[in-house]
Recover the amino acids of this structure.
């Protein structure tokens, strides 16, 4: 049984991409229409759309937008294909850590290379593939949710970090997909949400969508998780992922590694919920995952106002950290829960 989320984060509509503007949540809940490839590039980079699966769909939509623009200026199909592939490769660079972006754009490149159609036909094929990826994302997340719900104890309190919910995907969620599916079976399930500095995705977005869906949520600051773990108020941790290496090392929003260490010390299960498209079998370990360095303003400013001296203070702002595989109890995917030894179990899941 699936919980029916009220949110659809991103969808293709006729000739443009319609998405929730996540930069203004919780003050506003509004949609924006993205009508050009470069506009999509900036929407991804500036986190109008965020969350690895949603970024992937946005990238696929971006390829369609570039195709529509190139149709107006390219005289031959060969010129169109060459320029479009170049633009698609550029779209992959909008954010470096989340592998779903590269995966979804590559799916569009495969369409471009394999198509025997004319330019208009290729654009139509790209649109249909973009819509197909949207629909598949929701179904994949519901499967992740159902597999995850099986391991949630009755009446559990689940801690999550950042936002891996409907707003990080097309419309159901990975970590919060587990919460939604568990809540559908047991409405005594509760959530603790870390605020997630510096962009407060847990505070702004996770609490927003759980409150919208009527799922009990308690907001805590990032430094509080150990306190509540020691008091026995947290039963398990479920987080999302932006990239998982072939050995199970997992990149997620900065601060996730700290939560995993605390969970290990307190003997609390720590799960990652992510589609198989988030697993990058081309890299052996988390040491190879590129970590995005983001603007210093995210750390020094809140709501446009400084929280520290703007001169004489050094700032470092990595967007992600990597949780080593030995801290992860299991990886919840659409094909079931992957468990240690991750090198072997990940290899096996991709054989089938």
């Amino acid at each position: 049984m699936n919980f029916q989320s009220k949110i659809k984060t991103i969808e293709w509509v006729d000739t443009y991409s319609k998405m929730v503007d996540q930069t203004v949540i919780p003050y506003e809940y509004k949609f924006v229409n993205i009508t050009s490839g470069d506009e999509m590039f900036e929407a991804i980079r500036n986190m109008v759309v965020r969350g690895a699966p949603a970024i992937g769909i946005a990238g696929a939509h971006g390829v369609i937008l570039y195709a529509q623009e190139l149709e107006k200026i390219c005289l031959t199909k060969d010129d169109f294909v060459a320029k479009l592939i170049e633009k698609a490769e550029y779209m992959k660079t909008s954010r470096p850590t989340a592998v779903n972006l590269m995966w979804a754009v590559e799916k569009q490149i495969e369409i471009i290379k394999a198509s025997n159609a004319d330019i208009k036909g290729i654009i139509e094929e790209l649109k249909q593939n973009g819509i197909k990826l949207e629909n598949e994302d929701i179904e994949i997340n519901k499967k992740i949710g159902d597999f995850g719900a099986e391991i949630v104890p009755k009446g559990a309190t689940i801690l999550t970090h950042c936002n891996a919910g409907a707003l990080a995907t097309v419309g159901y969620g990975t970590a919060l997909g587990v919460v939604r599916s568990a809540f559908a079976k047991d409405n005594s399930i509760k959530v603790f949400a870390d605020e997630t500095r510096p962009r407060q995705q847990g505070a702004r977005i996770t609490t927003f969508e759980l409150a919208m869906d009527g799922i009990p949520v308690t907001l805590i600051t990032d430094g509080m998780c150990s306190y509540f773990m020691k008091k026995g108020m947290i039963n398990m941790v479920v987080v999302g992922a932006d990239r998982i290496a072939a050995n199970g090392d997992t990149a997620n929003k900065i601060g996730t590694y700290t939560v995993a260490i605390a969970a290990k010390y307190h003997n609390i299960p720590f799960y990652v919920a992510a589609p198989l498209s988030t697993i990058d079998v081309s890299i052996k370990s988390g040491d190879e995952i590129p970590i995005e360095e983001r603007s210093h303003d995210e750390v020094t400013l809140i709501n446009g106002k400084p929280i520290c001296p703007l001169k004489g203070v050094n700032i470092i702002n990595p967007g992600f950290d990597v949780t080593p595989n030995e801290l992860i109890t299991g990886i919840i995917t659409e094909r079931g829960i992957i468990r240690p030894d991750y090198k072997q179990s990940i290899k096996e899941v991709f054989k089938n």
